[in-house]
């Protein structure tokens, strides 16, 4: 498949670097201010050598690192290049979910596929996206938006949403790292947050992670998958956005609560839960050595099924290559 | 899809009972001595009522329970019925893997699909099966042969076998139940085996489970998936059979070994491991509260990837509805 990768952060760059290994070709890459487009697909010549028509992955990544741009073309050139699949890997935005939403719908209007790593459009405008898919020969996939390398969405799809009663889990590695360290070292939130920021595990402004917003967006996406997937008629499906989620973060979890929990063989995890009717994210007591008590930046997704009991999937919930591998798995499913 | 279900044990019966919920129709069912075939598809009229053309699931299950047969037709009638997918759910046999192997190849010769719950053909004759698929418009799927409800095969396929370096895990619930009880109660193997037999967790002849054969067959299947999936040319792929597996069971694990392990924060699990080059099953020390130390009859599969770290999937590794749900997931993937 010929890919146009929009967004050149950690995930976008990893998709550019790994696509060839999965048998795909990157024909265009854009960040917010620049682009590179392979020869014959709309603009600047690729540097791939031999008979490759794709862009040169190493050159793109090097330009981004050295000059802060991916190439000398305009982002618009990448969006209008001749690709099979648009990979939307720009940062998640809330509300109208722009510019990601328009990138995806422009691909669908051209009957091309879109694979999203950007949570905004699937969490905030799922109904609009489904409508755009209905009018297109293209499809959308978004495994990378939930739990990084963990195949949460495709496993729910394979089981079939009508046979899944709930999905819950630990869906934010930063919050989980902080809770794990607080419990292990008996330290307070502020102390561990500072440590996590030093290690690069937490952002300078950690609110998206520690207030539960990121986990809530993932649960909203799962709720949309469950609701639309189980409805006989999409018009009957309930659409979820972040506003429908009941969210509490971990800022107010005192070290004393973790010590008290430990005395009872328990610990605290930020648990998100989605059904076709509700979305909730909150710190909750879980057994200390239980399935949900994954450590550090690990994520876990627990799928409750009607006929096959409970399925648990744990793994790396974030990271460039991990998330890119989910993107490229989605591309493979579109073939 | 119209299904012909061959084999009326726990898995076959559950497929018959659940197929309708997944939007499929059972048009024929056979056990080793009898069959029922829906009206218009080759033989005896179905009892589905209204405009259904499928067999009546409840009637099939009731006949099997009361009279030991699924109907008054000949098994041959079910095999030659007009179905889209043949579900092979007869007991696993080794060596020539008959009669399962012929059931599957007869479906492929008619350009129909086959979904296997029977491990024999995929473990013992994978090369022959691949050749039959190459000559057919039909496909085969076999998620149910490895780990019951756990989507081991499809997750490896989605990651792509060339990006999976190894798959390991706990793949036999009976052996795991025995080791879990031995460790928890400080009892010896013979004592716990008798208890497991009373509970119906172990068979009267437990050798298939406790000697590691069942886990080895699952690992052989995974090795075939890895080897054939990663090969550019199937002719270059190494084919595995049970003979290629290095297998030790749990009969000789003394209670004292579990006590010694516990003093060091460890326990013993029967771990199977497959790569594209080796298959090994043996009792191994694992951390007592670690990911691989699942309890009781739970199974776990750990997938080592090139780019996305380690993925762990745990759940129910056996059971009629659990395994039937894997079969019906495969049927869904064939649509």
From TrEMBL, chains A, B:
Alphabetical keyword list: Amino-acid biosynthesis, Methionine biosynthesis, NADP, Oxidoreductase, Threonine biosynthesis
Residues in Homoserine dehydrogenase catalytic domain copies: 153-331
Binding site for NADP(+): 7-12
NCBIfam families for this protein: PRK06349.1
Pathway(s) the chain acts in: Amino-acid biosynthesis; L-methionine biosynthesis via de novo pathway; L-homoserine from L-aspartate: step 3/3; Amino-acid biosynthesis; L-threonine biosynthesis; L-threonine from L-aspartate: step 3/5
Binding site for L-homoserine: 203
GO term, biological process aspect, one: threonine biosynthetic process
Family (UniProt): Belongs to the homoserine dehydrogenase family.
SUPFAM superfamilies, A to Z: Glyceraldehyde-3-phosphate dehydrogenase-like, C-terminal domain, NAD(P)-binding Rossmann-fold domains
Active-site residue list: 218
Major enzyme class: oxidoreductase
Start and end residues of each Aspartate/homoserine dehydrogenase NAD-binding domain: 7-143
The protein, known as: Homoserine dehydrogenase
Native source organism of the sequence: Halorubrum ruber
Coiled-coil spans in chain: none
Entry EC number(s): 1.1.1.3
Gly residues: compositionally biased ranges: 40-51
Gene3D superfamilies per UniProt: Dihydrodipicolinate Reductase, domain 2, NAD(P)-binding Rossmann-like Domain
DNA repair keyword on record: no
Spans annotated as Disordered: 35-54, 315-335
